[in-house]
What we know:
With 152 residues, this protein is of the alpha+beta class. It contains 4 helices and 4 strands; from the N terminus they run H-H-E-H-E-E-H-E.
Amino acid sequence: xxxxxxxxxxxxxxxxxxxxxxxxxxxxxxxxxxxxxxxxxxxxxxxxxxxxxxxxxxxxxxxxxxxxxxxxxxxxxxxxxxxxxxxxxxxxxxxxxxxxxxxxxxxxxxxxxxxxxxxxxxxxxxxxxxxxxxxxxxxxxxxxxxxxxxxx
Length: 152
């Protein structure tokens, strides 16, 4: 293959890669964002559940002169692959839609908020989740109002 043909082939491959990347980004930008899901249905907290699953992380590796609690160590804020897989499996099994998640490092839990499927009976689904051996905690999402007056 001549150098001119090789360059032309590379340009076509890069162009196809660019087209593919643009198509994928367009698809990704049309998907609803998890936070938007919560905001759009914020008025009906009864359509959401909070689930916590074990989040066991491998012990942090220490480096000379350091501790596991230094600011640069993001280990305490990580999600284990096991917790991620468990939440995905639960969402798939119960037809839940992911909304938001966060770790609770001291308790070794990963919490997530899920929207219930349309037509699901919240109490029945919650009872099933509470009996599921993979779930540490399953509770309805509660909506609270702050009852205070601003300082004068």
